[in-house]
Design a protein that fits this description.
Strand content: 5-15%
Number of domains: 2
Largest sheet: 6 strands, antiparallel
Strand order of the largest sheet: 1-2-5-3-4-6
Number of helices: 11
Oligomer: single chain
Helix content: 40-55%
Length: 292
């Protein structure tokens, strides 16, 4: 992790260490950050009565989660989101299975400057306040992640613009200033499957089961999935599993067999051969390059 990223993360999250983030994917700028528990709990999130200097919004991929009881009706084509104001003590309960979510942290000054476009009053002191956002926010969130990772020329300006756009979407959703469009596309349906694969990557998954979740025939599902992602469902699942395995190997907290089982491979040998084929290096050599 580069020093600038850690400074930005601490400005948003609080007194957090790089070690606390070993299971978390993060994408940050000075005033805006996205954090996704990838293969385990964020150690800062489960710290008792921790606080954030920034506004925190947790977007759940499914209402079936074990962090809070759902108190509002979750509409089709919407995500459930909770809001937490700066300085409010809270914690995430550690359970046997972690809930995959997207935590969006927005600096106090930045969020309140956007909020002023809609109300002269200050935002409420949110404490697990629940609201809905439309699925199209995910497109901008993923653009932000992609820009952060690619770091193409001009990426910082693009990240700043996307942070403004996403923050406006959140404020509008909290204040119930929403569009009336009921338009649903294949893109959103496939996004749901992509999110499902990222949550259930360790389970035995089949094309038939995924097609049923998408409510499509197997042939149609395969066709639109490849159209939207450029890969077949099983090729995409392999990439997800290997990406998760890399994160676990880098953390140094699990051995090769444990990583293999957690990431859904049928055997350690299958994992090793798949990992070597796709990365050009064995899992052991990859892990040793990070933990030694």
């Amino acid at each position: 992790m580069i020093e600038k990223d850690m400074i930005n993360i601490q400005k948003l999250v609080g007194d957090i260490t790089e070690g606390n983030l070993k299971y978390v994917d993060y994408y940050v700028t000075e005033n805006f950050g996205i954090f996704i528990p990838s293969v385990g709990f964020c150690e800062y999130a489960i710290r008792l009565q921790h606080t954030h200097p920034a506004y925190s919004f947790v977007l759940f991929f499914s209402k079936e989660q074990n962090i809070i009881p759902v108190q509002i009706k979750v509409l089709t084509e919407h995500y459930l989101v909770t809001a937490m104001a700066p300085g409010v003590p809270h914690e995430e309960k550690e359970t046997d299975n972690f809930t995959r979510y997207i935590a969006i942290l927005i600096s106090k000054e930045f969020y309140e400057s956007i909020y002023l476009n809609y109300s002269p009053k200050s935002p409420e002191k949110y404490f697990w306040d629940q609201f809905l956002v439309e699925h199209d926010i995910m497109l901008d969130l993923k653009k932000f992640m992609s820009e952060y990772e690619s770091k193409l020329p001009g990426y910082q300006n693009v990240l700043d613009a996307l942070a403004i756009t996403i923050t406006h979407q959140i404020v509008r959703s909290i204040l119930k200033i929403t569009s009336k469009s009921d338009f649903i596309t294949d893109k959103f349906e496939i996004e749901n499957i992509v999110d499902y694969l990222s949550q259930h990557f360790g389970e035995k998954l089949t094309i038939s089961a995924l097609a049923q979740i998408a409510k499509k025939s197997e042939s149609h599902f395969i066709r639109i999935f490849k159209k939207e992602t450029g890969q077949s469902p099983m090729e995409f699942l392999m990439k997800v599993r290997l990406d998760k395995a890399k994160k676990l190997l880098r953390s140094g907290t699990k051995n090769i067999t444990e990583v293999s089982l957690q990431c859904g491979f049928s055997s350690t040998s299958h994992f090793s051969s798949s990992f070597t084929k796709h990365t050009g290096i064995t899992p052991s050599d990859y892990q040793n390059s990070y933990v030694l």
